[in-house]
Structure prediction request, 332 residues.
Amino acid sequence: MREYLIYHMFALAAAIILDAVIGDPHALPHPIRAIGRLITALEAGLYPKEADQADTSVYPARGRMLWIIVMAVTATATSAAIIIPYMLYPPAGFIVEIILTFYILAAGSLRNESMGVYDALPDINAAKGRLSMIVGRDTDRLDEAGVVRAAVETVAENTSDGVLAPLIYTAIGGPVLGMLYKAVNTMDSMLGYHNSRYEYFGRFAAKCDDIANFVPSRLSALFMILSVPFAALRERMKVYGMKRAYGIWRRDRLNHKSPNSAQTESVCAGALGIRLGGDNYYGGELVSKPFIGDDTRPIEKEDIKRAIRLMFSAEILCTAVIMLIMLILIFR
Prediction:
């Protein structure tokens, strides 16, 4: 057990560094994309496009069936991929664990994609094109402030979903638990919509994602608040505010249909002194959302970089706490 914890600790540290340096390797096979293809195939069989959406009685059960199959396949495949190499030759298992954990984390990818929006500005059309790759809202109606706001919101929300939550789950249960979390998250992102097609079929996936993220989103908010001073170290102007981040989090952390999404968005809005949220168009339909944060200053392009800096500061702090706990367990 002690030997595995040592392997696990170093594999986690190596994967975090690889993710920060490289980000998602789009040219290589990716297990999360494989999970997405499995979801698509199962949906086609359980809920074909021509299905009668007026008859909702069978679709909640089919949605639960899809969820169970995806989780079972993910658990089986990941367990085999990690356990067999460790049993045959532990150093090989160590390498596999680094690779799998690297795929689970998304801080580097989140930075690269959001910086693509940053670099495209002030070319608004190019920026909208890059933004459309990472958000679900309609981008054609957005002005420059709207583009920046959407990019900042994406970084803020995914500081939990894409960075700290998978990091925490992987630290607790290795790549198996980390990949199961990513499967839950992927099913929610593909099926958890409140519209005529997915209201019933995707409800179970959405609820499971809310449960899986309930504790991690709040821990992520805490790590973000505590990391505000570190994020501010490279900022010449006094933009970040730790006290303001805590205050806005306390006030606006539930200003979202999801019980979790506004947790980290509110911290980011408060830390930067900007206002996020508000109405947006999705599929041509206006969706009303409450505001998060105070409009103390105009949002600007540099806020994308500031949100990224806050994300990485929170990840470093969370990693330090995880490593300390692992060291205590190893040497107790």
User: Anything to note?
Assistant: Strands lie at 276-277, 280-282, 285-287, 291-292. The mean pLDDT is 93. The radius of gyration is 20 Å. Residues 2-331 form one domain.
